[in-house]
Amino acid sequence: MNQSFYTGALGAGICLAKMSVISNNIANVNNNGFKPKVAAFSDLMNFNLNDSEDAVTELMSGNGVRMQRTYTTYGVSAVTPTNRQEDYAIMQDNAFFMVQDPVTGEISYTRDGHFYRAEMDDGYYLMTTNGKLVLDQNGEPIVAETPDIERLIAEMEEGYEPEEDDDDEEDDEDSPRVSLYTFSNPSRLISVGNNEYVPPEGMEPELVENPNLSQGVLETSGTNLAQEMVRMIECQRAYTYALKMVMTSDEVETTINSLRG
């Protein structure tokens, strides 16, 4: 009887943990570059009824489940145009931008390509909305072009035609550029919030030689709202059944105690 109390209470607690994962996915449905998480469960110890421990029978009893971990798939989601020169969308799986905290120097990785030009003491740099520097293929902060105020004013005047540049030279391959990095096992990345991830100790990033990037667009959230709603309903039903199990066990225990009296 005590086992039924334990199994039911454990199941209710696991449903609450799964609901937290689902609610987090739904809350980030409008965040660019967000990748939803999925809760993975594993069975606790099962044992045979009316037989030896090593026997394999159809009469099995379990001690419930536990949430083993949450995993994230870093696939490509839908993109939306912004027509901003500083916006980038990653068009390949398991690839990330490398960003750096200008205060602490800590490195993290993100798929959110919503960048902007920010002025610092020594010039303009390409930064994230969280105030982190975007790093190039050499791991150095990318210097952004200084805004040409006179040109911007001229563009607003009627009849303005931009001057043609006669020097049609190809970009230097070694020049700083927005780059992508990947990992041998991206599923081990640790989420630190704000759509950013850090690798565990010992896992090093690898530079993507031919990154597939689109400029002027943003990758939308990977949350499938319909799928998350279905999972939420399933979780609510499971939670109800787990509590019902506890209540039924309590009623049986109460009946037994009254018969003893």
Describe this structure in words.
The chain is of the alpha+beta class and 261 residues long. It has 2 domains: 2-74 and 223-260, no CATH class; 79-160 and 173-219, no CATH class. 27% of the residues lie in helices and 25% in strands. It has a 5-stranded antiparallel sheet with strand order 11-7-8-14-13, with no helix packed on it. The chain has a two-stranded antiparallel sheet with strand order 1-4. Strand 7 and strand 8 form a beta hairpin. The chain starts with a helix and ends with a helix. The model is unreliable at 166-170 (pLDDT under 50).
How would you describe this structure in keywords?
single chain; 261 residues; alpha+beta; 2 domains; five-stranded antiparallel sheet
* DSSP summary, beta strand count: 17
Q: Give the quaternary arrangement of the chains.
A: single chain
Question: Any idea what the shape is?
Answer: elongated
Mean pLDDT: 83
> Radius of gyration, rounded?
27 Å
